[in-house]
Automatic annotation (TrEMBL):
GO molecular function annotation: damaged DNA binding; DNA-directed DNA polymerase activity
GO cellular component: a single term: cytosol
Gene3D superfamilies on file: 3.30.70.270, 3.40.1170.60, 5' to 3' exonuclease, C-terminal subdomain, DNA polymerase, Y-family, little finger domain
SUPFAM superfamilies tied to this protein: DNA/RNA polymerases, Lesion bypass DNA polymerase (Y-family), little finger domain
Pfam families linked: IMS, IMS_C
Cleaved signal peptide residues: none
Protein family membership: Belongs to the DNA polymerase type-Y family.
PROSITE patterns: UMUC
UmuC domain location: 12-193
Gene name, Swiss-Prot/TrEMBL: dinB
UniProt record, GO biological process: DNA repair; error-prone translesion synthesis; SOS response
Stated name of the protein: DNA polymerase IV
Amino acid sequence: MENKLQNNEKIIFLLDMDAFYAGCHIAENNTLADKNLVVSSPNRRAIILTASYNSRKYGIKAGMPLYKAKEICKDLCVVDTNFQLYINYSEKVFDYIYTNFSKKIEVASIDECYIDVTNIWKKYGTVKKLAELIIKKIKLDLNLSCSIGISTNKFLAKMAVDFNKPSGVTILLKKDIQKMLWPLNIKKMFMIGEATEKLLNLYNITTIKDLALHDKNKLISLIGKRGDTLWNWANGVSSDNVSWDNNDLKSIGNEMTLNYTTNNPKELENLIFELSVKVSDRAKKRYLLGWTVSIVLRYLNDELKENFNLKDRKKHISKQEKLLEPTNEVEDIFTTSKKCFYDLWKGESILLVGVRLTQLVSSINHYKQKEIINWGYKLKEVSENLNKDLLYRLKNKYGKSVIFTGVNYEKINNKNRSQSKYIKKDDVHLSNDQVIKKWKNNSK
């Protein structure tokens, strides 16, 4: 590969964790390694989130209903979802790469990241040797399996990684796309979902080659501006910019799928409150505020009640509202999300509720300098040797999360950066057992 690079071409890795959620549970409990493991929530509508490679041999895969997987594999081992565990391991992996290999890292999702190795690969001999070393070290030190796709831009690296999983390395250069990329079914292409696939199929675009050779302007008229991007990708043209700045956290959310549908407004308000508390707590722990609060609902579309395909009958709706000031307070989040809920809700029986805080900013940087009028001081005039009495009174007046010494400010700012640098969208899907217990207790 090294001899085939053109001037100014970069070398980009896409590191993708193998069966990541299942892998995290195995890393915690190695006795699960040889089992037919799947990760799923415990409710009766549960679907498979991740299937280990052992269980995939039976045809079990993500998105399959849990009951169906149990019919296929009688000794299926089911573990409950633990999103905090996945976040912890995700940050361990990205920190490991950042600390030991390259600081030019851009997180694409909880289990994959781009790495720019242009300036470091030579000390490892070859590009492939570096990739193999990263895979080996992550397995050895974190007990997790990953694969790496290699190219000169991000899209081709992303497409390359799926050719040789698990624990594999694949190189895909622009000169190779006609042989390796074009024969693939269009649904295998990154960012092509089911709806886009069906639309493209109507115009006889069934492979990536068909897309690459299709008239670009007609493609844009068919699927909008995204058509330009997809056409370029299919022809091997993509960004090679791996940006650390893209790792900033974009949202914090909690959602919950109910064990049963409900249209009881009191139950739904209780649920929205519980979710608001979770979002508020997690935002405060990260010293983050959000400018926008949103609600997400899923319900069964009764107009399609004769349709026995549950997936087709489920309908998602959402609404958001911009605040006058950013917040992480539970009262603000609950009040706004409840308002959005009642703006949306028309009495349908609800399957899922989600609350999300977006347009995030650092609470530390947002708070304005406050004058200390009562004691005859101004913050800018106070030295680093602030006496304990003054700090005590300041924190009493403005709150512990607002007043910091310079040293503590740096510590907390660095902690906030560390906690949010890898996870763009910190959304957690909860079990509703805790809320159900509260409802039962409140009704006694």
